[in-house]
Amino acid sequence: MCKKLGGDFIPANDEAQFEIYLQTPEGTSLDATTLIGERIARQVRDIPEVDSTLVTVAGGDQRQSNVGSIYVHLSDPDNRKRSQNDVMQQVRTKILPNVPTGWRVAAQPVNDFSLGGQNAMVSYVISGPDLDKLTLYSDQLLAKMKTIPKFTDADSTLRSGKPEVHVEIDRARAADLGVSVENIEQAINTLVAGQTASTFNTGDDQYDVVVRAQQSSRGTVEELAKMTVPSNKKGSVGLDEVVGLAGAVIGGAGAEDDPHGPAQHTHGR
Could you name the CATH architecture of 9-119? Predict the structure, then answer.
């Protein structure tokens, strides 16, 4: 009898809701990702069982402008013939395949503890020190999983093409010029990543004032070299006088930040 009952990690339950994970290519602006999400949501609302949708972009802990989600609320299960899984499958087969190459999309159950990423029921972790081998093995496993009908929304956490610059501080030279390592780190962090300098209020809303260099002044190694850092001997010196940028890499295939370190996570559902 038990063999005929079947089983799963989580019992199937029609919650009358699910979400669509959306990740556009690196560098896509907040407005562009929002527009793309709204277009997908409009198609989803054409499904009779869908009651409403809500698009959220940059809502995770990392506030990535190219990552978003579309919350889909369905009508009451008693008022429709198709189940939540049936509607999700329609989205997977009729809507999501139409997105351009390079986008990552998935229809998934709503996770109450989601941090803005994908919610996979099954996750495999491949770890090791060699990123090239991790990429090779992950791609092979992912390709095999996509041939198995029982897997849906198979994906990997590898995000190639992220801009990456390696900066090596010349500590002896920095000490001679009166530049501290902390000042170098703070200057680069402020000019490249940005820092909140103040806030201002408008009605009941509060907004951060973020100080950051313009894109044209931080997008290449040459522009980074023109930055200055404070010196207690000369007032300020060029960044290229205290750090090595000759071996910098722009556009490297950096893996997504992950608490597991150098690893590939392959998800299936």
Answer: 2-Layer Sandwich (3.30)
Domain 168-244 has CATH 2.40.30.10: no
Cβ contacts of 8 within 8 Å, gap of 6 or more: none
d(CA 228, CA 144): 50
Q: Which residues contact 152 (CB under 8 A, 6 or more apart)?
A: 89, 92, 107, 268, 269
As a whole number of angstroms, the longest Cα–Cα distance in the chain is 83
Residue 247 pLDDT: 42
Extents of the domains making up the chain: 9-119, 168-244
* pTM more than 0.70: no
Reading phi first (left if > 0) and then psi (alpha if -120 to 50, else beta), residue 238 is in beta
Whether 168 and 244 have beta carbons less than 8 Å apart is answered as: yes
How is residue 127 written in tokens? 């770890």
Are the CB atoms for 37 and 92 separated by under 8 Å? no
Rounded Cα gap, residues 269 and 89, in angstroms: 12
- pLDDT surpassing 80 at residue 162: no
